Amino acid sequence: MNLKVLIIVTGGVAYAYADRGIDVVIVDFDDLKAADPAAITPIHSSFQPLMELAGIVGDWPLSEHDAVLDEARHPEVVRGIV
């Protein structure tokens, strides 16, 4: 199982870079308010404990299937150079 990171954004734009083996999901509440609810991609249900800790359970849809599991960019490191 990979380590999980949940990034919550309001009023900004977030980008995430992570090592391999770390799943990162970005919850952008500005997108949630502006988008059609049917267009919002659910977050994988494995992030539910982090969402509970953040107090946002029920604010964003969760799913087992067709859900976001990792939005981080994983830069390739070649001989110590990113």
Any overview of this molecule?
The protein is α/β, with parallel strands linked by helices and 82 residues long. The protein has one domain. 16% of the residues lie in helices and 22% in strands. It has two helices and four strands, in the order E-E-H-E-H-E. The chain has helices at 29-34, 48-54, and strands at residues 3-9, 22-28, 43-44, 62-63. The strands form two sheets. The chain has a two-stranded parallel ribbon with strand order 1-2. The longest helix has 7 residues, at 48-54. The two termini are 25 Å apart. The relative contact order is 0.26. The mean pLDDT is 88.
In short, what is this structure?
The chain has 82 residues and is of the alpha/beta class. Helix content is 16%, strand content 22%. Strand 3 (43-44), helix 2 and strand 4 (62-63) form a beta-alpha-beta unit.
